[in-house]
Amino acid sequence: MRLDPFYLIVDSAAWIERVVPLGVKLVQLRIKDMPEGALRDEIRRARTVCAGAGCQMIVNDYWRIAIEEGCDFVHLGQEDLAEADLGAIRAAGLKLGLSTHDEAELQTALAASPDYIALGPVYPTILKQMKWAPQGLNKLSDWRHRVGTLPLVAIGGLTVDRLDGVFSHGADSAAVVTDISLNPSPEDRTRQWIEKTAKRRGDPA
Ligand SMILES: Cc1ncc(COP(=O)(O)OP(=O)(O)O)c(N)n1
Ligand SMILES: Cc1ncsc1CCOP(=O)(O)O
Ligand SMILES: [Mg+2]
Question: ipTM surpassing 0.95, yes or no?
Fold first, then answer.
């Protein structure tokens, strides 16, 4: 499986409606603390936009709802994974991405046969409090060798200027939240990410 090199993470269908039409091809819907009915509405709205734009949509955390709503990709952290029914996820045909932060988590993740492995935070992040210090680029290279041919996602503190570094250290895809969501012009910044990753995506010159 191949992942787009630009992996955008947003927290609403409204964001997806705003930026996916610009040419985003891989997006995660990461919603925290929302009543289930509203969450299902968000997923359905987001999925409609993504389907129309040829954008792969990944649902964070809510694997049961993702199955019920007919989605095809979920992302789980290690705590999510501990409570998830992997058999049900696989039986429903969903692809699975997993977070890792240290060696033990990598072993746990590899044992679950995921479709990609994410490593983070590569750089300091302001999105959420992390138990882990920034991992740095050398850890990314280490993970590159350990995950073999599995797609590797870098996450945490990524910006357009940091993309060359993460790709040259083995990442296949770079995931981002605040460099876009907190930018004074999220649309312009999204275009910069698309342009900077164009060659890796195989876009025509
Ligand atoms: C691509 C990607 N990598 C890591 C995470 C973090 O997942 P998790 O550790 O479960 O934390 P939350 O995002 O659920 O707060 C992610 N969402 N996406
Ligand atoms: C959810 C998550 N997991 C590891 S780092 C991170 C946050 C990424 O956000 P940002 O791109 O704003 O640093
Ligand atoms: Mg999670």
Answer: yes
